């Protein structure tokens, strides 16, 4: 709405102002009122220990992989939506703003659904990731504006649902002693992948067109979800149970033989 009525400059200003409330909230936290979590032993090779732990927890590792694929390719909305608004539908900045409105409506609904899923299963995570990719690929070939806008709502819904459930599933599955380390790698895969994929998607969009760029953003996460589903199917039962967050493998929380303690 701001893009259409006030201009893009005011959008940057409003986005900056949105950081004030979270900053104030963080400053008002009282650490003395918090329950101190269990801390892991200090080690000289923390990253190696965390990676060794993840190798023993394929349920968590595959979730991080899916999140990385989604972050690297599927979430380049500023590139593909701008290109779709200008090239595919010959619109203006207002068209791009409309795309974001409907994407946000779907995202809000997806966040509400994810909040109701206390223990998201492997199947739900894989299906939501695959669904997001397929819907984005379908939006890339949408023949008209009405169909495209409808698919945008579905994209926002599946995107936020997957993000929220993936985050919750990893935090619930990881032992408290290693939760901070694992979530650090999780966020690196999620947020760190987007600036890597952005120039790739930008180059492909510039060379092959807006629809091709958006299709690639959807196909890659969908294929990643299919790969994870096929790999998990070949795993034995206990690892699949761990993927559902119903078991806790506390033995992996201790440093393995040969690692500094």
Give a quick precis of the structure:
The protein is built from twelve helices and no strands.
How would you characterize this protein structure?
The chain is an all-alpha fold and about 260 residues long. It has a single domain (about 1-5, about 50-240), classed as Growth Hormone, Chain: A. The protein is built from 12 helices and no strands. It has helices at about 1-5, 10-15, 20-25, 45-55, 60-75, 75-90, 95-115, 120-140, 145-175, 180-210, 210-235, 235-245. It is globular.
The CATH architecture term is: Up-down Bundle
Instruction: Please count the beta strands (DSSP E, at least 2 residues each).
Output: 0
Main β-sheet description: none
As a percent range, the share of strand residues is under 5%
Amount of helix:
over 70%
Kindly report the average pLDDT value: 83
Please supply descriptive tags for the structure shown above:
single chain; 261 residues; mainly alpha; Growth Hormone, Chain: A; 74% helix; globular
Strand and helix map with partners:
Layout: H1 2-5, H2 8-17, H3 20-27, H4 46-55, H5 58-74, H6 77-88, H7 93-116, H8 122-140, H9 145-173, H10 179-208, H11 210-233, H12 237-243
């Amino acid at each position: 709405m701001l893009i259409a009525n006030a201009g893009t400059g005011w959008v940057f200003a409003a986005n900056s102002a949105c950081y004030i409330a979270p900053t104030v909230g963080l400053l008002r936290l009282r650490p003395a009122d918090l329950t101190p979590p269990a801390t892991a032993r200090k080690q000289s090779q923390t990253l190696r220990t965390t990676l060794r732990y993840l190798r023993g927890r394929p349920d968590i590792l595959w979730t991080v992989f899916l999140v990385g694929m989604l972050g690297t390719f599927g979430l380049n909305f500023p590139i593909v939506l701008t290109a779709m608004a200008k090239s595919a539908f010959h619109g203006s900045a207002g068209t791009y703003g409309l795309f974001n409105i409907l994407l946000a409506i779907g995202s809000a609904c997806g966040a509400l659904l994810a909040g109701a899923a206390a223990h998201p299963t492997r199947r739900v995570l894989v299906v939501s990731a695959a669904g997001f990719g397929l819907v984005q690929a379908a939006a890339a070939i949408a023949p008209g504006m009405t169909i495209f806008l409808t698919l945008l709502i579905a994209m926002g819904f599946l995107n936020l649902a997957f993000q929220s459930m993936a985050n919750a599933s990893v935090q619930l599955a990881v032992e408290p002693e290693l939760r901070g380390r694992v979530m650090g790698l999780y966020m690196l895969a999620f947020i760190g992948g987007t600036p890597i994929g952005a120039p790739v998607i930008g180059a492909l969009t510039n060379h092959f067109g807006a629809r091709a760029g958006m299709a690639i953003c959807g196909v890659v996460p969908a294929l990643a979800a299919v790969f994870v589903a096929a790999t998990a199917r070949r795993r034995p039962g206990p690892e699949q149970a761990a993927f559902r967050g119903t078991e806790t493998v506390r033995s992996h929380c201790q440093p393995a033989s040969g690692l500094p303690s």
